[in-house]
Q: What sequence folds into this?
């Protein structure tokens, strides 16, 4: 989210008509500045309040005890690594399932795109509590005993966001021409998908990755009902023990997610700039 602020400010700048003998200066429209200020206050004030509470002790004085105590708190390490494993497994399953499916529908079954749009929007319509209760009733006992049942459900939850990212990426390229060119040069379907289609979907895949990781690392309802202590569940449970430490973990998780998203978006932009430079030089 922090990486999007320069783009918003750049869009809000309107150039003043150029006058001979004067330099061209950007002018910020008042109403856009007000909207930008209100949006920033809406996001930053709660974060400031959370950070301030995290750096206070029970007496209300500034202290770092809550941050220093995070690694040694009981159950934190297990909850953190469980959330990381679930995020990695969910991301891998989602991309393996959705990328070939989206490519096949665009190439062979374009009439089914509307049906797929409808099917992939259902996880947003169905409440998560209904979905997880149904899965717990239908799943076999050995699967219910594994935390990776949550990964299977998270794949369904992330499907609306991942499919729309991939659909937008596939619509922006000439997929049929790329595939036919690769096939005419002797490439099989797997090589064509991996070496031709996927590199052209880099931005769409990064968007899908960001959305999936944010969803998994912040999901609470399904993990709680499935009786697994992920990081959000641990934060909720530990709040009854020490609210300062619980809030500190929430702030660290939030900032860490922002940094991860910013890093992924920055890598994508850097790669895009290098690609444009190579294209212009050639």
A:
């Amino acid at each position: 989210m922090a990486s999007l602020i320069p783009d918003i400010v750049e869009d809000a700048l309107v150039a003043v008509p150029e006058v001979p003998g004067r330099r061209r200066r950007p002018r910020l429209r008042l109403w856009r500045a007000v909207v930008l200020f209100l949006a920033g206050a809406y996001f930053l004030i709660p974060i400031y309040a959370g950070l301030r509470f995290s750096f206070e002790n029970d007496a209300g004085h500034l202290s770092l005890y809550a941050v220093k105590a995070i690694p040694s708190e009981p159950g934190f390490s297990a909850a953190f690594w469980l959330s990381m494993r679930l995020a990695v497994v969910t991301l891998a399953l989602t991309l393996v399932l959705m990328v070939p499916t989206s490519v096949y529908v665009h190439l062979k079954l374009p009439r089914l795109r509307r049906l797929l749009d409808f099917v992939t929007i259902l996880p947003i319509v169905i409440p998560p509590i209904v979905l997880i209760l149904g899965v717990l009733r239908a799943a076999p006992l050995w699967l219910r005993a594994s935390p990776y049942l949550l990964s299977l459900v998270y794949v369904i939850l992330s499907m609306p966001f991942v499919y729309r990212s991939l659909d937008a990426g596939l619509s922006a390229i000439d997929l049929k021409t790329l595939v036919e060119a690769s096939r005419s040069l002797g490439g099989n379907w797997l090589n064509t998908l991996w070496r031709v289609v996927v590199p052209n979907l880099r931005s769409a895949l990064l968007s899908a990755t960001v959305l999936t990781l944010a969803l998994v690392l912040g999901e609470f309802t399904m993990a709680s009902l499935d009786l697994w202590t992920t990081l959000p569940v641990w934060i909720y449970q530990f709040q009854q023990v020490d609210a300062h430490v619980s809030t500190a973990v929430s702030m660290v998780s939030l900032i860490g997610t922002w940094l991860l998203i910013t890093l992924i978006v920055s890598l994508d932009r850097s790669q895009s700039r290098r690609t444009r430079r190579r294209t212009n030089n050639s």
About this structure: Confidence is low (pLDDT under 50) at residues 1-19. The chain has two domains: 2-68, 76-241.
